[in-house]
Amino acid sequence: MSFEAYNKFATAVKEEMQSLNYEEQLGILTIVVNAMNSKKKETPAMSLEERLALFNEFKGAMKVPADFDAKKELTESLDERYGL
Predict the structure, then answer these.
(1) Mean pLDDT, the chain, as a whole number?
(2) Exposed e or buried b for every residue in 18-55, given b needs 16+ CB within 10 A?
(3) In sequence order, which residues have a C-beta less than 8 Å from that of residue 20 and are 6 or more positions away?
(4) pLDDT beyond 70 at 84
């Protein structure tokens, strides 16, 4: 989902939630939280070895020069984008 589509969806949900009374809002939020909790339980936890193997797999894909300055790059990017 694109950021713009997500924003439209989030705005529509917010407006719909504001049109409901407190008890209806609480009921909907309870359903969402319960769904999120059940999803967490369905997802098996990874062992430390599995997490390290996954990290090493992705770490190999990261190729940046030794003199790369992330803070400088972020600052320049923000300057270009927002004129800060």
Answers:
(1) 76
(2) eeeeeeeeeeeeeeeeeeeeeeeeeeeeeeeeeeeeee
(3) 28
(4) no
Can you give the pLDDT at residue 41?
65
Residue labelled with tokens 């967490």: 40
Single-letter amino acid code for the residue at 16: E
Q: What is the mean pLDDT of residues 70-74?
A: 79
> Residue written as tokens 């984008």?
81
Domain range annotation of the chain? 3-82
Q: Minimal CA–CA distance to 40: which of 32, 51, 48?
A: 32
Q: Which two tokens stand for residue 70?
A: 């992330």
Give the H or E element holding residue 75.
helix 70-82
Read off the DSSP letter of residue 19: T
pTM above 0.85, yes or no: no
